[in-house]
Amino acid sequence: PGEGVKLQPVFGVRYFKVTEGLHQVGVFDGGFDGTVDLDPPLVSTIGSHVDNEIFAPQFGLRIELVHRWFSLAFEPRVAAGVNSYRAMVFTDQLTDFADPRVTSSQAGHKIALVGDFRLSGKLHITESVSLFVGYDLMIASGISRAHDNVYYNDNGEGTLPAIRVAPGFETM
Question: Is the Cα dihedral 49, 46, 26, 99 positive or negative?
Fold first, then answer.
């Protein structure tokens, strides 16, 4: 209690989910020289979807300057845990009207590190009313992204599309 600089340890468990999708559509209605006219045009689709669920114990430190008229705080926290991810990629009519919908998926676990940095300030207007402002920056590694998960490997006409899922991970 009272004014001055306060240091408080912070412990907890962090859970957050990052879901992302990518949908690509291509329309082909004829040859480049205009001699072939497809009616209706061929509409090709490539899609990617990923769910990341991060479970991590975290620890940090709350550093706060308390005054009777205002409070300023900085709260750095670090978490290390597991990203339980599920990624899926599909194609539909990739090169021909007869091409079936081809889907591939992969699930797994990846180490995820999270840094969370929070700045906040309070202006104590009265004893029971305060104006609060804050900023939170979170950086996470080991996150699978939809645009990184598509392995573009089409083997050409006459074969099933070989575009498939190949999870990639990055920091966001």
Answer: negative
* Per-residue pLDDT reduced to its tens digit, 41-64: 889 999 999 999 999 999 999 999
pLDDT tier at 30, thresholds 50, 70, 90: confident
Beta strands of the chain (E only): which ranges? Answer: 4-30, 37-66, 70-92, 102-124, 130-140, 143-144, 150-151, 164-165, 169-170
**Residue type for 34, please?**
G
Distances (CA, A) of 92 to 89, 138, 157: 11, 37, 14
Query: Which among 118, 97, 111, 127 has a CA at the least distance from the CA of 27?
Result: 97
**Biggest alpha carbon distance in the chain?**
84
The answer, as to whether pTM is greater than 0.90, is: no
Bridge partners of 56?
14
By C-alpha distance, which of 87, 95, 86, 88 is closest to 45? Answer: 95
